[in-house]
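// run 5 | inverse folding | seed 20
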């Protein structure tokens, strides 16, 4: 494996990478090389890495929604944004704590939201996310949610195999309709080229 070639190529698209970003790429690629029992197709791997880059606000680390440092801060930021009309798509404030004090705002590499999706994701990967939703911030668990979720159609009913290889723009429907589909597609294509050079099959 020529990791140096991969990172040389990817920096041409992303610019300089800090250690946290490199670590994130390494964690995800470790899971992609055997997820769950065999490597995912290279086009899928590229799109998953591009998705993690976008959804983590370029940190390549599992993050809370709004990049908050605590659950309380995430809830407060979302509440303020909602009150100020900056979340017009939200019908019901999903971040408000339930009777047990748990909140179901976005977490991880893919911003998992809503209790029903935490339940489904936990069942898919065999982790009890309902008892502790912050487990979705663990890098290994977040990687499994991203990879297996996108492969299985967990988030929208659409799977990466429905679009890839071939349709980088359409693949965004696996996560979030057409939101930011073009820039993510452009990045996924660049990552695909880097993977082919750095990790030849």
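// decoded
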């Amino acid at each position: 494996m020529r990791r140096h070639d991969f990172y040389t190529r990817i920096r041409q698209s992303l610019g300089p990478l800090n250690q946290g970003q490199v670590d994130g790429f390494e964690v995800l690629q470790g899971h992609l090389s055997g997820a769950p029992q065999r490597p995912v197709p290279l086009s899928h791997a590229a799109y998953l890495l591009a998705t993690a880059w976008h959804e983590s606000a370029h940190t390549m680390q599992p993050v809370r929604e709004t990049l908050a440092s605590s659950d309380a801060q995430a809830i407060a930021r979302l509440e303020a944004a909602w009150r100020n009309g900056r979340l017009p798509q939200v019908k019901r404030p999903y971040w408000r704590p339930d009777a047990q004090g748990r909140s179901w705002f976005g977490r991880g590499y893919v911003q998992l939201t809503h209790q029903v999706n935490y339940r489904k994701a936990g069942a898919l990967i065999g982790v009890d996310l309902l008892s502790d939703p912050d487990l979705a911030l663990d890098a290994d668990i977040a990687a499994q949610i991203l990879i297996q979720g996108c492969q299985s159609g967990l988030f929208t009913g659409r799977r990466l195999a429905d679009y890839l290889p071939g349709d980088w723009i359409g693949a965004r429907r696996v996560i979030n309709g057409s939101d930011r589909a073009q820039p993510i597609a452009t990045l996924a294509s660049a990552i695909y080229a880097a993977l082919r050079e750095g990790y030849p099959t």
